[in-house]
Amino acid sequence: MVNTRPRTKKTRNQSGALIASNDDLLIEILLRLPLTSVLRFKSVSKNWSSLLSRQPFTLLYKNVSISPGFYVRNMYIPFDVENQIALPICNLDIHPHPCSIRIVQSCNGLLLCCSKHGIQGERKYSVLNPTTRQIALIPSVLGGRKVHKNIRFMGLAFHQTECVDYKVVCFHRAKPDEDMFRIQIYSSETRRWKISDESFSFSAPYYESLGSGVYWNQALYWAPFSINPLYFKIDTEELQSLSFPVEVAVESLGDSPHGAMPLYFGGSRGHLHLVLKANRSETHLHLNVYEMLNDRSGWFVKYRVDLDELLNSYPEISTCFYEFQLLDVVRGEEEDETFMVIRIPGNNIIRYDVANKSGKQIYDLSSFIDGPINHAEVHRYIETIVSV
C-alpha cells in the first residue's frame, strides 16, 4: 500500500539537511541560481561559503562570463543603460585607500589596483573582485625599495580554467640607468614573489612604464608597441616575439607617422584583437579588426567595419576626427552580438553594434572628464565569483 500521509515538518527538515550535506547535489541546485542569489547564499554557513568560492563550482557556474560594463578612471559605465545588470560595487570604496587608488588592469573579472601611500608615497598593489567585494593586498616585490622604485610594469594573469591561481607579473629595471629588465612573479597559491630566470632589454626613458597588460592564451602582452614586441608566457616563464599584420609597418610602432597605427589592442571571450584604420583618410571611418590565431602564428581580418554612418548621427566626428577613440571591442556570446565602445568628440561614449551597424550613446562623460581617455584608463568589468 502506498503511503499517502503528508510529509511532516520533521521529514522536511531531514530532507533539507540531506540536501545541505550533499555537496554534489547542492552544487547542481546552486548552479541554476542567478549571481545575486549565489553571493547571498555565501553567508549561510562557512561550508557554503567555501563551497561557492572554490573549484569545481566556480568553473561550472554559467554566469561568470557576463560583461555588463567597464570602468573609466575608476568610474563604472554600463554597456546597456536600458537593461543594467546590478553591480555590487560601482566604485572602489572597499579599498583601504580609496582616494589614491587607480585600476592598472582588468583580467577576466579581477582588477589589479595600485595606490600610493606610506613612506614617500610608495605604490601598493592589490587584486580586487568587484562582484564579491573581496580584496587581496599584494606584498612588496623582492629587493626592497631599491627594486620597487624601478618598477616599469605590473600585469595580472587570471583565467577560470587555464590560470586558476592568479599571478602578478612585475618588470623592473636591473639598474636605473640600464635597459635590462628583470622579471618577478607573484602567485596567489603561494602568496609569494619569485624571481624568474628570464630577462630582456627594452629601450625606454627611465620615467616611462611599459603600459597596461593584456592577458590572453596563457601569456601576458603589454603596450606600447615596440620595434621588437614581446609577450611573456606564464606557464613556461618564457619571452617570445610577437608578430603583427603586414599593414603595421615597423616604423609605425615608434614615432614615425608611416604605416597603420593601431587603434586598439585587447582581448575578449578568448580572442585577441588588433584594430587598424583601413585607410589614411581623415573623413572616413573604415576599420579592420584583426584576430590572432590560437597558435599565435599570425592574424586574420575578423571584421571590416564601416563607421561612416555614425557621421550622420554624430557630425561632430568629421570636424574633430582626431578625438575619435576606440576604447573596447566586446565579443558577444553569439557572433552577431559583438560591439565596439567608442568615444567621440565631447566625451560621449557610443556603443556600436557590428552586425546591425547601429550606434547609440550610453554615457556622457563631458562633466567628469576633459580631453582624451588613455587606453590604460579603460578596464572591462566581468562578473566572476572566484575568491581572491
Automatic annotation (TrEMBL):
Signal sequence range: none
Domain F-box associated beta-propeller type: 97-250
UniProt xrefs under InterPro entries: At3g26010-like, F-box-assoc_dom_typ1, F-box-assoc_interact_dom, F-box-like_dom_sf, F-box_dom
Annotated F-box domain residues: 23-58
SUPFAM superfamilies to which the protein is assigned, alphabetical: F-box domain
Pfam families: F-box (PF00646), FBA_1 (PF07734)
PANTHER family: F-BOX DOMAIN-CONTAINING PROTEIN, F-BOX PROTEIN INTERACTION DOMAIN PROTEIN-RELATED
Protein name as catalogued: F-box domain-containing protein
